């Protein structure tokens, strides 16, 4: 684990994906790239440097160039993933897709996984990670669990009791259980290749997924809840920032070795 001194001397750069849609501010009502401040504050409070990554045209060279500048990546919350990306027809309650954002984030996730870049998914981000690895989603949880407690509506977060799986990264970060802020009407169904469920709620809904730490050592964790809504508890953000600090330390050592040679 990186020391506090190393985080201060060389803070890692952590990219956060953003919305791209109509937004109002003051007299303006324009299409805009934006992100709720809690995500940025979660990264910076944990010792990282936040860099916003708005959706843009997908091109392998662009994705690789963006990832070159990052030490970690956070795929943030937002509207439902397009069911076409995992081979399903849309449910009547599924959001109209933001295909530009879907394509951008799926490309970033796949690129990050290829290079071993530390990755955290939050809510939609957990679903994007699962879909990127071939998994599927429950498109409307009330059809599965019989109630609306996971998404009360009107931007009101509900508290869910989360139980972690022993021996997982998520358990190492937050312990056996936690109370989490949830706002989602979709959830992970079939797990993507290489992923495991590392936390559940009392309804049997998957609340966290990860690539097991013994696979290749890369930090790949995603939670269905919203840690940015509880910034008195930075453990999830600290996990990705510390992994990013270790990643950037490794890059620096490689660069130094090349310079010496």
Nutshell version of this structure?
By secondary structure, the chain is α/β, with parallel strands linked by helices. It has nine helices and 13 strands.
Task: Explain what this protein looks like in three dimensions.
GO terms for molecular function: gamma-glutamyl-gamma-aminobutyrate hydrolase activity. With 261 residues, the protein is an alpha/beta fold. 35% of the residues lie in helices and 25% in strands. It has one domain: 3-Layer(aba) Sandwich (Rossmann fold), CATH 3.40.50.880. The protein has helices at residues 4-9, 37-45, 60-68, 99-115, 124-132, 141-145, 169-174, 213-216, 235-260, and strands at residues 13-17, 19-25, 28-34, 49-53, 72-75, 119-122, 137-138, 158-164, 177-182, 187-188, 196-201, 206-210, 220-223. It has a nine-stranded mixed sheet with strand order 4-1-5-6-13-12-11-8-9, sandwiched between helices. The mean pLDDT is 92.
């Amino acid at each position: 684990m990186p020391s506090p001194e190393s985080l201060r001397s060389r803070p890692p750069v952590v990219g956060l994906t953003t919305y791209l849609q109509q937004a109002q501010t003051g007299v303006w009502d324009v299409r805009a790239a934006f992100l709720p401040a809690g995500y940025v504050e979660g990264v910076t409070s944990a010792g990282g440097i936040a860099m916003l990554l708005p959706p843009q045209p997908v091109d392998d060279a662009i994705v690789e160039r963006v990832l070159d500048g990052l030490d970690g990546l956070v795929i943030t919350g937002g509207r439902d993933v397009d069911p076409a990306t995992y081979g399903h027809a849309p449910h009547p309650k599924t959001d109209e897709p933001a295909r530009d954002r879907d394509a951008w984030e799926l490309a970033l996730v796949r690129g990050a996984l290829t290079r071993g870049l530390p990755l955290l998914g939050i809510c939609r981000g957990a679903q994007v990670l699962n879909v990127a690895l071939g998994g599927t989603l429950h498109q409307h949880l009330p059809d599965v669990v019989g109630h609306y407690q996971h998404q009360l509506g009107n931007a009101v977060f509900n508290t869910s009791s989360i139980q972690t799986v022993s021996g997982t990264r998520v358990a190492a970060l937050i312990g056996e259980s936690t109370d989490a802020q949830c706002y989602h009407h979709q959830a992970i169904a079939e797990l993507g290749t290489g992923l495991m469920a590392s936390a559940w709620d009392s309804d049997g809904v998957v609340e966290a997924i990860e690539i097991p730490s013994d696979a290749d050592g890369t930090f790949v964790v995603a939670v269905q809840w919203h840690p940015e809504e509880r910034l008195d508890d930075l453990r999830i953000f600290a996990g990705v920032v510390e992994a990013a600090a270790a990643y950037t330390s490794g890059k620096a050592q490689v660069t130094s070795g090349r310079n010496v040679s």
